[in-house]
Amino acid sequence: MTSMFEITFPATMLVAFDGGTEELLDGKLIGHANGSAKYDLTGPVWGHCTGGFTKAGISTLECENGMKITVDIGPQKPKMSGVNVVSGTALGVAFVSAFGWGNDANEGAVRAAVKSHPASAT
What is the dihedral of CA 81, 68, 59, 8, to 10 degrees? Predict the structure, then answer.
């Protein structure tokens, strides 16, 4: 537990782009009692990334290599673990992304979520 109103979870994110390029990031998510969160992730190509999401569901990610992604993941309620899957466009290329935290913060869970998404390019 980080404080009375927030808790730290392990986190894993997979971003799969059309054309087969992907980035797997690992790190932590700090969840707040109001449904918002901050995360700190690192990937082999993108390097150190930070971001978060609001209770309303606006999610941002900004990485040291210049990658920036903003998506609407929908309204959020605090949960101890789970996987959010979204699709969108970054740098003019379509992508599907899965973000897992808590018990679902592992490569298997995020790969399965990306593969089962209707917009999946993989």
Answer: 40
Residues 6+ apart with CB under 8 A from 66: none
The predicted-structure confidence for 24-65, as pLDDT tens digits, reads as follows 999 999 998 888 899 999 999 999 999 999 988 899 999 999
The DSSP secondary-structure symbol of 44 reads T
Residue 91 phi/psi, 5-degree rounding, is 55, 35
Cβ atoms 68, 62 nearer than 8 A: yes
The dihedral sign for the CA sequence 115, 83, 25, 76: positive
Computed on alpha carbons and rounded to an integer, the radius of gyration of the chain in Å comes to 13
pTM for the full model?
A: 0.88
**Among 118, 111, 112, CA closest to 22:** 111
Residue 74: which region, alpha, beta or left (left: phi > 0; alpha: psi -120 to 50)? Answer: left
